[in-house]
Amino acid sequence: TADQESVTSESDGSYEIQLQPGTYNISMKKVINSVDAYTLEDEKIILTIGQEAQIRDFDLEKVSATVSGTTTFEGINIANVSLEFEGERVAPFRINSDETGFYTLELEPYNYTVTANLEVTEDGQNYTYTFSGFLNITTVPDDITYNIVLAREED
Predict the structure, then answer these.
(1) How far apart are CA 148 and CA 82, in angstroms?
(2) pTM greater than 0.90
(3) Which of 118, 108, 40 is nearest to 79 (CA)?
(4) What is the spatial distance between Cα 149 and Cα 83, in angstroms, rounded to a whole number?
(5) Cα separation of 139 and 118, whole Å?
(6) Which candidate among 10, 37, 48, 124 keeps its CA 20 to 30 Å from the CA of 65?
(7) What are the pLDDT digits (tens) for 13-23?
(8) Interior CA angle at 131 toward 129 and 134, to 5°?
(9) CA dist., res. 77 & res. 91, Å (int)
């Protein structure tokens, strides 16, 4: 077995690494917003003395779900809403919807409590937009649409 080495790929997925002869156990991951979205485990390569340079491509497996949706109130998209996805065994993931009310994130398969909150002043009146719900992710890879319909309260 050879020494441990690591390399970070370029944005197009290409990489280059100089390795000494030996046996290498290969593991790879692509992290998106602090979530392991793609992984490769238990791949092995053996390099021998005098072996020419090689090109090796690896196929990573998607191990997360892409969750996306919009934050709305009475059918109107609401921008910059603070969202929190809190899982049973994972740290809470926080994201804001964009200027169109859209959001997207990668999540591991777990049960999540989803909350949303936005405090605004409209025409001199303070309002709080809120949401509370649940999201259960059991299969990956998966693309999940999870639209958030907000309630509005006057302060």
Answers:
(1) 11
(2) no
(3) 118
(4) 12
(5) 31
(6) 10
(7) 888 888 888 88
(8) 170
(9) 28
